[in-house]
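Deliverable D2.4 — example input (structure tokens):
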């Protein structure tokens, strides 16, 4: 279950004395605007508004990352499960998660399985087909979470019509108890009101592009708005939009301080900001690296520096 921390407890865990005196009006304030949670490991969870508990940290099984690496995809996902991950999200329908799940011999209830529907699932029929294909390939008779990508707002009628049809199909799957939670991907602030008005069941999750390289006052305000509606914020992009992001000088400086890598620091930052975070790894070595983020904590200065990597005022 989610553990709420006091400000003093946060500072104590971060090993910072008097760190709260350093807080100003910078973007770092968003760290305290986010849910304050005690991330103890893979078992730490966030409760969705419908009562379902979702692990704070998970593995993002992305075909692109797995194919580029050239390693056997099933072995990479299996390594994630064996390393401790309790949450696996699959893009489109993928056999890797199902095969690794069988090989792991883990009880189904011990794994949180999520499916992110393909972008072309834009009608009721396509959503049902993609959902059923996902169940078959992931070798399960239910899913813990299904996410649908909201189309871009290119004219109100067009995107909203598609989004409404797709979402109503997810609502039906949820009512049939074939999926325990439903959510959206990249529902933008300007789309929010129109979309929510069409929902009988509002999204439990909105998966956004969030990283140290996308921090902004506008994004912070939108995240607060989502939290007001009890919609949990998730991200698969904490490592940035391209591989070289983790070599940012500030990330590297913080990483050297903690004897960690830039990737580990970026993922830890995302968790301490209170976001449901999924690591995307294409190799067994990366899986092991990203699994090792619970042996350290970022202090107030670290969080402030990382939160200010992207600051338009500096440009």
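Example output (designed residues):
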């Amino acid at each position: 279950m989610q553990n709420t921390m006091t400000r003093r407890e946060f500072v104590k865990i971060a090993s910072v004395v008097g760190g709260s005196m350093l807080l100003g009006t910078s973007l770092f304030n968003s760290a305290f605007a986010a849910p304050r949670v005690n991330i103890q490991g893979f078992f730490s969870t966030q409760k969705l508004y419908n009562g379902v508990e979702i692990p704070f940290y998970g593995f993002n099984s992305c075909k692109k990352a797995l194919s580029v690496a050239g390693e056997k995809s099933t072995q990479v996902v299996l390594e994630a499960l064996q390393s401790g991950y309790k949450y696996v999200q699959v893009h489109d329908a993928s056999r890797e998660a199902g095969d690794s799940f069988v090989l792991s011999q883990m009880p189904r209830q011990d794994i949180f399985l999520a499916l992110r529907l393909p972008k072309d699932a834009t009608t009721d029929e396509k959503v049902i087909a993609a959902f059923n294909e996902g169940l078959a390939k992931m070798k399960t008779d239910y899913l813990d979470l299904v996410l649908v990508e909201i189309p871009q707002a290119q004219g109100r009628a067009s995107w909203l019509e598609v989004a409404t049809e797709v979402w109503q199909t997810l609502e039906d799957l949820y009512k049939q108890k074939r999926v325990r939670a439903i959510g959206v991907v990249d529902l933008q602030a300007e789309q929010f009101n129109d979309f929510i008005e069409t929902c009988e069941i509002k999204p439990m999750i909105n998966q956004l592009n969030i990283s140290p390289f996308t921090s902004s006052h506008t994004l912070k305000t939108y995240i607060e708005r989502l939290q007001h509606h009890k919609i949990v914020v998730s991200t698969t992009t904490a490592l940035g939009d391209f591989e070289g992001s983790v070599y940012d000088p500030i990330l590297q400086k913080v990483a050297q301080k903690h004897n960690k890598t830039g990737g580990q620091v970026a993922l830890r930052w995302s968790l301490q900001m209170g976001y449901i975070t999924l690591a995307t790894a294409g190799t067994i070595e990366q899986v092991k690296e990203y699994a090792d983020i619970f042996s350290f904590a970022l202090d107030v200065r670290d969080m402030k520096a990382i939160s200010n990597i992207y600051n338009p005022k500096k440009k």
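The first helix runs from residue 7 to 13.
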